[in-house]
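Model: Ready when you are.
Researcher: Fold this.
Model:
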Amino acid sequence: MIQFLARSMRVFRFTACRQSLRHRSRPQVTAVGCSVFLALIAQSFAPVTVCAPVTVCAAATDRPNIVFILADDLGYGELGCYGQQKIRTPNLDRLAADGMRFLQHYSGAPVCAPARCTLMTGQHLGHAEIRSNRDSGNGRIFPGQFPITEQIVTIAEVLRDAGYQTGAFGKWGLGPSNTSGSPIKQGFDRYYGYNCQRNAHSFYPAFLDSDEREVRVNKYPIPGSDRKPTGEVLADDYRAENYAPDLILAEAVKFLDANKDQPFFLYLPFVEPHVSMQPPQEWIDRYPTEWDDDHGPYRGENGYLPHPRPRAAYAAMISDLDEHVGTILKRLDKHALTDNTLVVFTSDNGPTHGGRNPEFHIGGAGCKFFDSNGGLNGYKGSCYEGGIRVPCIVRWPGNVTAGSETNFPSYFPDWFPTLTEVAGGTLPPGQTLDGVSLLGLVKGEPAERNKPLIWNFAGYGGIVAVRDGPWKAIRREINRKQPADWELYNLDTDRNETTDIAAQHPEIVTRLEQAFLADRTTEPNFPLQIYDTQQ
């Protein structure tokens, strides 16, 4: 009875006497609520009303656990199950074989912070509070990013209110600990990782964030940027005692173990394969030395850190990420949770783009060598397909058909209503949500969308993209002196966006532009100049 009472008190949410439609702390049972709850037990659960309706969640056994894994800068073509020929990803390939591959899934943005904002809040970039990467401005070396506000409701808050234990482990990027954007203030019971994206540029940092405290992890940390124009480049020169991805994984496993007997939401925004390249040597040694013979070491000329074997190192980062995913999947197996756990794997945007030295991409990444964007046009920072179309795998035994795939165009804002429906939660009243639930889709049912997919990106000169059915319109350089003209592509016949047909179909361009204008708001912190003046 005591265990039952403890669990039941966690999943009851009393909405009486609140001054707003939401709250920031973990739901508490008030003195009045406790009296009513005990009376409810005594009366064999006879109906009772306390000031306002009481929401009762389904039994824990009826609700699946949710594991959402977000890779960092992983391209559409960098997994074996998406056509990669050189990099080994056996765990993710097995996940795809056991579940569903999404062939037209999109990030909500082409760079880190805004992509995570669209995922957490269910809003596309025309409504999201964060529309580009931007630091908080607090003056610190690692300032954290511009924070989401107290008013916005995250998917973590919805799931926590539905009775889930919530934990996030990895890169956050939506606000420092002393602001409204802290993950602990945004619905997570436990957080461990890089709060600030800049700190994540080194995999051997001085500190990581544990809840809202900085904890020292390396006595002699490695900065995330260096150059070595001459001399021998040694990988060990850029290593320290503790590799942050391993520390983050260990904390995630602890959370999973501690909450195996109750429903949990485990959000894993892992940091690989974002550069700098500092992967474990054991993975580097598994890849051919001849890969790097034709260009030699990377000396840091495109930013981040040098490496003696950059192609092998980049592949090693992805294989290490795959191994970490495998650790989580094996832990679910160990606790007999696999059949009752929805697992989603995707990436925050496309692979890193080129730099000054054409031999390498930023940080020395070998994205051309590995065909990282899967033949699509563009890379990270672009709203062409290569910058925003990302791998996505969903596994849920008994609900998702093994080895299946879907061509339905979907994107990050869809996960908010999807996970809410999976958990039996309640969508936040008054908050604009731009996605559709994919629950029926993953179960094999038809899916529909009643408005276009929209990207309103304030970074990289300002970019707008609109997709409706096969048609995709894109306009670049919007915040420059000379904005580019609209481009138009038919993705059914031109997946790689090789032929701009805007001149042949001006009426489609106009229709998509008007749809964009009708479904956006201005955000003064992230202006999009020529369109903000039209609102």
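Researcher: Now this one.
Model:
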Amino acid sequence: MDTMSRRQFMQVSSAGSAALGAGLLAQAAPADQPAPAAPGGEAFVDRIAFGPWMNDTRMEPMPFSGWPPDAFDDVTVESIIKTFELNQAFGYNIYDIFGLFATYGWPEDLESAATPERSARVRSLVKAAHDRNIKIICGMGVYSWGFDEIIKKHPEVAGVNQQYPNQQVMCGSKEESWKWQEKLVDFMMKWELDGFHLEAADLGRCTCPDCMAKWPRNPDYFCEISSRTAKYIREKMPDAYILVTTISWADWNTGFAEQDKDSLVELSKSVDCIFDQGHHSCYVRPPARKPFIERLHSRFGTSGGLWVYPTYTWDRLQWFLPYPKQTGTHMKELFEDGGRGVMYYQGPPNNPGVEINIAFGGQLMCNPGKSVEENLAAVLEHIYKPKSAAALEKLVSVVLGAEDAYFNHMEWDDKHLYLKGNKLFPGPGELHLSRPITGLYGTPDYILEPQLSFEGRKAYNIGLEKVLKDAYAIGDQFEAQDKITRLQTALLNTLMMVRTAISTQQWEEQQAKERAKS
């Protein structure tokens, strides 16, 4: 797919959009009825709401938080359940979450992580998901992520003389390591969860001589330990849903070699779906993706092509960044290639842009044959309850205009693979609002270089001004007045943030000129 087709995909004509709005309003269900997202015969199978961490959907800011925050309080639970409600309305069937009992380090005594209070909260979330016909699966590190304390107290699980020393991973060649992985699986099976998300490579691998001799290529190593874990789960819990993600399995620039794909085909015999998420673009890209999917014994998916990772510290109305074109274009092409899974990133559902993104993801997964605009209009009709077709049409243009104002001015190269200011990795597939990831210092990373240049920020400013004026002009044309007011506020806050970045740079340049004169 070339750059122009991505940017110009599904342009809306005024007449076509008006007809779309009229058609949807004519079929509008009463306000107390479910949203229109109901999967038909042609729909994604694995419609996953990916948390990923339990506070990523938190509806209140945590201004002094590290990452990932370990808070598991009433706000955590209420926020996740609010997200469940949005997921149910728009057709998600699985919720995938990390951190239920440990956000980073498992204690040596795994059972001690299940305090009475924490256990009660976990059970309440599982029940809330099941009450809404949503399966809930837990994210789990495989030989890495969370084993630091165990490795310290049980050095027999660590690799010796590693080529690349790594104290955060267990050795894949040692049976002692496998026993700890079994213990973790057994522990997590006690909580009425519906399955597992296996993640083997986020913190790397063991590179001891034994492991390097058996599995010199990273994908072979990760396939082996993931497959063994999946088979054990299937043996103990035959109906479990099992997915594997391939984050950090290969070089982001080169992707999977043919022999790596052979290993993945073998792994696919043990799992329900393999996800090539695409943090820095996917490892398997078109045109190679379709024939690869045809070889698999499992389903295949991505994370929708692009997502914005939420920040914990910002006010929930500080940003507005919808991306239905970005994800809609990718998901429709994925479906055409035979992909049937999407792990759609979540966020605080009381942020208007996040709410639209989550709803749109579920809506399109249920209706991949419909256009981006049709799916978006269905979402906006349900959430904002427009009083007329014209109001719906205008709101669609506001959302798409806010998206274009940002993404059409990112500093991409000609092939739309690399940002011009960062040729180390393709992407971003995962876009961070702020650095560090928590937003602790308040820096609006996503509107700064290399994402947007100074000229890009000025163009973004102009685009935001237009859509904000349009949003104000139609503010009284919706039944959901609280919703439209929050959207206006988030747009205004975004515009002020961009203006601040522009004026700060202009001021600094002016001060530098004044100093040069003196």
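Researcher: Key takeaway?
Model: Strands lie at 46-53, 94-98, 135-141, 195-199, 241-245, 273-275, 299-302, 307-309, 341-345, 430-432.
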